[in-house]
Write a structure and sequence with these properties.
Elements (H helix, E strand, L loop, with lengths): L1 H35 L6 H15 L1 H6 L8 H5 L2 H35 L13 H26 L16
Helix pairs in contact: 1-2, 1-6, 2-6, 5-6
Amino acid sequence: MRRALDALYDGAAALAAVCMVGLLGFVLLSILGRQLHFHLPGTDAYAGYMMAAAGFLALAHTLKHGEHIRVTLLLSALKGRAHRGLELWALGMASLLALLSAYYSTRLAWQSWRFHDVSTSNDATPLWIPQLAMAAGTIVLAVAFIDELVLEWRGRRAQPSSDEALHNE
């Protein structure tokens, strides 16, 4: 099960990376269009869709690698059962919020498909297509939070070290 979950998080991160490359491609195409005096409609909108997709698809991978911003002032003051209790409460609330986000983003994509909602820009893209990435990203994030909650509950969650925040600077 651990391999499957890690593959899910890594797969979502790989899709986020592909979206970042797509974002770069659309931005470069837009720049080239301005320099060479041609216009491809929708490049700005598609760049925005790629940026949103990259952000949402990378959420779970970022969480599992301890890269989300975390306020540990209260946690660092607590020890033993109080510390574990607060961790469980925080992960439970985060799981609940992630599940709500997954539900509503999936519902939004489904409603956009059902009502044939399209973007207001000149490309008239069906909005359910870019919203799928948001829905997928929030679903994977909810799975990751539940995974963290279960690991903490079973006493197998790796505790972030105090210097983890420094390695991305």
